Fold this sequence. Notes:
Blueprint: E1 2-10, H1 16-32, E2 36-40, E3 44-52, E4 55-67, H2 72-81, E5 85-92, H3 100-103, H4 115-126
Antiparallel strand pairs: 1-4, 1-5, 2-4, 3-4
Amino acid sequence: MKHYELVYLISPDLSSDQARALAEKTAGFINELSGLSEKITEPETKKLAYPIKKKQTAHIVCLSFSLSAERVKDLDEKIKSENEILRYMILEKKKEKLPKEKRMIEKPKEKKVEIEKMDKKIDEILK
Length: 127
């Protein structure tokens, strides 16, 4: 299974409760396709930068999920069948790289050697 993110705009004609129900229905599509819904945001009303289907505002929802690559087309078709979804985008999420500090393996701390012992060893080597 691959990890994906679905971002979509819901028509402002729906109330907040109806938008929330549609968001849950969309998450249900993923479960029907043997996927796993990981995280879903609450529908939030936003003003659009430009009109989409003659609407100036929309409810925006973001959904993270896991699904097999073959089933993404089926999900795409189900989302297209929903008339209240104005626009959507499915993105494949890449594996996140750990920050450099966390990737580095800590080296064991070296024991400190006294200078006098080091001098003796150097003298032995040079003789």
